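ingest -> validate -> predict -> emit
validate: passed (alphabet ok, no gaps, 158 aa)
predict: started
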Amino acid sequence: MTDFVDLHALVQACGDNGLGSAGGQDSGYRLLLVESSPLIRGTLRTYLEMSGHTVTEASGCQEAMDKLARHPADIVVTAIDLASGGGQELLEEIRKQTNWAHLPVLGLVSQAGELGGDSTGRQQFDGQHLKTDREELLVSIGRLARGAKARNAAAGAK
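emit:
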């Protein structure tokens, strides 16, 4: 399968002036993007950064855990079909860590037929999206980050 850079979508994400966030969605969150394909990872990183987010990249589960320890994130965005370890393994490792157990994790799939919970445990992800559905990904990032910040604020007030 060949992946192509969607330049039209990237230009649309920039708005009229080439800056700013796509569709007026929330921006400014710290994301850990985990994807084994350098082309897909680079395309998603560009789109997310153009939408105002700070992105740290990893290509696999162990690298993601190492980077998460050094670069705090508001949300982890991971391919479920990672070449090394898999997104499900990464999710389980994050959930084992008490300091990251409530960190939102979004799973990305390549085909619509892979969406939804099944016996592999994918229902544990805080959301799932097609890798190509960037607009919906931005909506979910904003929703999950706002929810996480509200939970952290409530916990700090106790």
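The CA atoms of residues 117 and 123 lie 4 Å apart.
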